[in-house]
Structure formats: C-alpha cells, structure tokens
Amino acid sequence: GTMSDDQLDLSDIPEITDWSNAVRHGQFYRPVKQQTSVRLDADVLAWLKAQGKGYQTRMNKILREAMMEDLKNHP
C-alpha cells in the first residue's frame, strides 16, 4: 500500500543544510555558449594549442575555474 507523507518516519534522515554540492557542474549543467573574440598573448595561445585539440574548451575551463574561485573568495 501507499502511505501519505505525514505517515512517513523521517527521523533517521539528517536534514540537509549545505546544498553547495547538490548540483554537479559538467554532468547536466550546460551553460549557453556565446561567441566572442579575444586578444591573447601569442605564447599563451601557442601553449593552449600545443596541448592538442580542444584548446577553446580548455581555455573556457581555466577561466571558469578562476571565476568559481573568485566567487568563492568574494561572495
């Protein structure tokens, strides 16, 4: 049979107060991409490209990590 919500015993389930890890970025999170043009130092671009295919994705990952760190340190 089915129980109504008020009949369920939830006393052994801890209440979640920290939801910071509830969303896993990268697994289901797909931010909207926006095309842009940037000027990079030639050696920085060469370094990114030397790591193989996908340098724009790597550049975005590096910038996202820097952004997340900054947001964590300066809420």
Brief overview:
The chain contains 2 helices and no strands. It is an all-alpha fold and 75 residues long.
Structure in words:
The protein is mainly alpha-helical. The chain has a domain of 36 residues. 37% of the residues lie in helices and 0% in strands. The protein contains 2 helices and no strands. It comes from Acinetobacter rudis CIP 110305. This is Toxin-antitoxin system, antitoxin component.
Record keyword descriptors for this entry:
mainly alpha; BrnA_antitoxin; Toxin-antitoxin system, antitoxin component; elongated; 75 residues
Give a topology summary.
Blueprint: H1 42-50, H2 55-73
Mean pLDDT rating: 85
Strand content: under 5%
What order do the SSEs take from the amino end to the carboxyl end, as H and E? HH
Rounded to the nearest angstrom, the radius of gyration is: 21 Å
Give the CA-CA distance, first to last residue: 48 Å
Number of helices: 2
Structural class: mainly alpha
Q: Total strand count, please?
A: 0
Poorly predicted runs: none
Helix content range: 25-40%
Shape by Cα distribution: elongated
